[in-house]
Amino acid sequence: MKRRTFIKNTAASATLLSMGGVALSCVHQNAKKITILHTNDVHSHIDPFGPNDGRNANKGGVARRATLIQKLRQENPNTLLLDAGDIFQGTPYFNYYGGELEFKLMSMLDYDAATIGNHDFDNGIEGLYAQLPNAKFDFISANYDFKNTIMDTHVEPYKIFNKSGVKIGVFGLGVELEGLVSRDAFKETKYLDPIEIAQDMSRILKTEEQCDLIICLSHLGYEYKYPDKVCDRSLARATKDIDLIIGGHTHTFLDEPTIETNAVGKHVLVNQVGCYGLYLGKVDFYLEPDTKYFSSRALRV
Amino acid sequence: MTLKSVKFLVLIFVFFSCHQAQTKQKAKSQRLTVDQNLDTDSKIDTFLKPYRERIEASMNEVLCFSVDEHKKTEGELNTAVGNLMADAVFELCAPVLKKRHDIDLDMVLLNHGGIRAPLPKGPIQMKTAFNIMPFENKVVVAQMKGSILLKLVNYLTKAKRAHPISGMELAITRNGTIKTLRIQGKEIESNRIYFVATNDYLYKGGDRMDFFQKSETVFDIDYKIRNVLIDYFTTKDTLNPKRDQRFVYTN
Hints:
The complex is a heterodimer of chains A (301) and B (251).
Chain A: E1 5-6, H1 10-26, E2 32-39, H2 62-75, E3 79-83, H3 92-97, H4 100-108, E4 113-114, H5 124-131, E5 138-139, E6 144-145, E7 158-163, E8 166-173, H6 183-186, E9 190-191, H7 194-208, E10 213-218, H8 232-238, E11 244-246, E12 252-253, E13 258-261, E14 267-271, E15 279-288, E16 291-300
Chain B: H1 9-22, E1 32-33, H2 42-59, E2 62-66, H3 80-101, E3 107-109, E4 122-125, H4 126-132, E5 138-145, H5 146-159, E6 165-166, E7 168-172, E8 178-183, E9 193-199, H6 200-203, E10 217-224, H7 225-235, E11 238-239, E12 247-249
Parallel strand pairs in B: 2-11, 3-9, 7-12
Antiparallel strand pairs in B: 2-4, 3-6, 5-9, 5-10, 7-8
Helix pairs in contact in B: 3-7, 4-7
């Protein structure tokens, strides 16, 4: 099991929130607020942790997350709810029901899209395919080529959402499966270079689709000891036009998004909220003709 | 309203200017802790109830009984609970290997760290198997030469940990000198081929068991360690595992 890593302290988070608050006060009256809610690596943690579960005690639980999401959607109807993969595996719910419950619950919570994590292949690609009818949300992955698999035509590289006239392009990226997942499980799924794909995606979403906001939903991992291994931070630096990378895989607990500088000197937010549904990530974007602000917070469930 | 040319310039300005101005307010804004204050959504909870009850009932199902409690800390180089796990893997996987590949299993090696809970006294439930083995690791069988098997033995004599084994007898001095070494009751021949069952985590080099990567080939028998335990518990009425002489210190 991976140990959790707390990257930034709470004081830093408070600072960012304050800045968010100031940004808010500076924003023009008719600015549009887009709220991005996100989870990652929930790993079948449907029930809350019990009182004796150490540092996770009494946290998490999908029925509480539902209440929180409803409240936030009431506050701002211009909200997207996204998941960065590894929905499956971690509790007997998965062993007994094969992911049926995870997808049904995410549908009840009205998730807009999810990308595919390595553990989502744990019952083989057929096991993932078999559960698709239970998902009323879309799966997006731009760098898994499913052409020669049963998943062909069931996964889109990206999806565009329109919220009160704001076009939000979301594309998905997955981690290299070789070495993480047995070949028997992922079959003929081809892993394509995430940086090249992200460059293509951001060009398509920015130039062709004219999106106002571009979000990458990634299961690549926050960062690694080995500098050559692609991660969300290196992806942010090597690309342009991406506003937010929502990550997963490394179970990284970020109090606040990391701010990276992209290939053309602009800022990119990289966020991840640990694992097991303990937190819900929230990033607010404020858009008006010439500017874009954000504020972000991680909500403990 | 055109939203096309969004720029971060203003944002950056706000960042730096506000950083100075707002630090005094940092106590005001925190991560929102909602666990105590958030209601459980009744629609979700009602939907979940039958699934939860079904799993709880299944988890509480009694598969067999154990005469005593056995912790993995009870024993220097072998423990009753570790012996049970390794013997269970041997007993249930050897026939699968024989049937599918016409191969005779020689031994089992698991890792001490992989025993995640004690074997309790009294009723052994389905959840006991989930507690002892919460992970999804599966049994794999490495085909290796005797010379590589000796590296495995060398690892055990150096590690001096109660890594569960079955099919092998090993007695070492406290200095790590080998006094007894037998596999299936016989001495190791460096040119013979041996078949060692382990889990996929160790096979990939987990716990620094690098020797597995020097195997000639590996057989995946598609059997999770946890399912081995469940099947083993199901086939037994009473469990009474013992610490024994399979891996011990000697003079």
